[in-house]
């Protein structure tokens, strides 16, 4: 099966062509056009600007992906598109573009949950089998899921306020570092002392897998203000120390909650236990290393997609579309763009998805 995938739920316009068959899955082309410069002056993603940019760039990304893959519309077996959750203007741009292509080329249309795209990525990259435990940690989300099937996820817990990616971005902003904050904070942290500032590890005293990151952000703000008052500014080394201390706090919380989620997952006696981490924050090397250690101690296989497949991309959407298609899913011209769309159907609503 060869699918075109479209992604436009946040600030990346992306198109990809993925082929999947008995011999394996291959990304034939994956084009990602970022919008960082467009939003830079505003200190965050501006939904209206994002939607316009998606509408302008989607067709070009599709053209480039098809050319890169060396396939024509007629060679495709279907079109998959992110139908939510995300910034609604962007999601609508993608859904309308996909409908146009599907109708024009007479192809099946499959709407994909963006989070399912992230959550299924370990199957795309490593072909791992269900059920696996997943930590989805991104700019807007943070949750533990057991993936039982392409459309079947159990949520074990997640953030009750901010997502870690958001906290990384706000930390960068507070410290005068560029956006997106994650890579900038990680780079600074490399030369910092993680023990320089005693930042909190919220909710570790509470049982379960829920997390909180907003208090950490406030603590960082206070530590910064105290440092500025003491030094009359923010010396380079202090900034690096703040970054390292912040990163360590996030890492410690995610590691401890991962141990708890693993205990629940392992109690279900999966065949070959696998813990996968995905989403933009999974690009963080300190976090990956820590989670790898946690898994090694428990004899659980650890997998994290390559960095370019951790952040938003359309290859994961094309692949998730193929997985849904194989299960018989087809959408019509009535496919809706949804601003909110919890992965776990039993969950009342996902916290932390509003950006
Ligand atoms: P969602 O997928 O929840 O809708 P999103 O699409 O904005 O949110 P992603 O693109 O998956 O999220 O990830 C972007 C986030 O990942 C940003 O907040 C960014 O700061 C963070 N991030 C990227 N690289 C790193 C890193 N090396 N360390 C920590 N955070 C990182
Ligand atoms: Fe994402």
UniProtKB/TrEMBL annotation:
CDD domains, sorted: ASKHA_NBD_TsaD_bac (cd24133)
Location in or out of the cell: Cytoplasm
Binding site for substrate: 136-140, 169, 182, 186, 284
Cofactor, free-text remark: Binds 1 Fe(2+) ion per subunit.
Residue ranges constituting the Gcp-like domain according to the UniProt record: 26-319
Cofactor: Fe(2+)
Catalytic activity: L-threonylcarbamoyladenylate + adenosine(37) in tRNA = N(6)-L-threonylcarbamoyladenosine(37) in tRNA + AMP + H(+)
Protein name: tRNA N6-adenosine threonylcarbamoyltransferase
Organism annotation: Rhodobacter xanthinilyticus
Gene from which the chain derives: tsaD
